[in-house]
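2024-03-11 09:14:02 DEBUG pipeline.ingest accepted 1 chain
2024-03-11 09:14:02 DEBUG pipeline.ingest length=168
2024-03-11 09:14:03 DEBUG pipeline.predict start
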Amino acid sequence: MRLIGRSLRKAYYVGSDLAAREDMLLGSFLAGVAFSQSKLGNVHAISHTMGGVFNIAHGIANAALLPYVIAFNLPACPERYRDIAEALGAEAAGVDAETAARRLVAQIVELNRALGIPSNIRELGVDLEHLPQMVADSMRSGNVLVNPRLTTAGDIERIILAAHAGNL
């Protein structure tokens, strides 16, 4: 996370910066090794569904959903999000874990904006006519089972609706 946090913008805006691109390569490799030993949670469960139904690139779907899923998960693991906020450079010193986690959400929203990622999934072409299918498909994912916060079908529906409306 630290490698990606310090280099993502630079690699995006200055593609010729080999040090930033190396950080991104190593960071994404390490992330892949980590999640090959575990599952990924609600972000991936929902984004897999969005990709299948609406042909949305997985990384873009993940990025657009991420702040909404973190906001949902925040009550279950604010200390984990404090650690992530610190790793990604959000101002987390001297504040409680929940405040640090909320700053992480704001930082991800800002990062998405800077990288041209829509602030809601409606802009990606997600049509709520498919909401029941998206909820059912997401709940079939093993990723939901390892999400930090226990998740029901109603929770998945609320996350999708919030992400569609852009309501954090």
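2024-03-11 09:14:41 DEBUG pipeline.report The chain has nine helices and no strands.
2024-03-11 09:14:41 DEBUG pipeline.predict end
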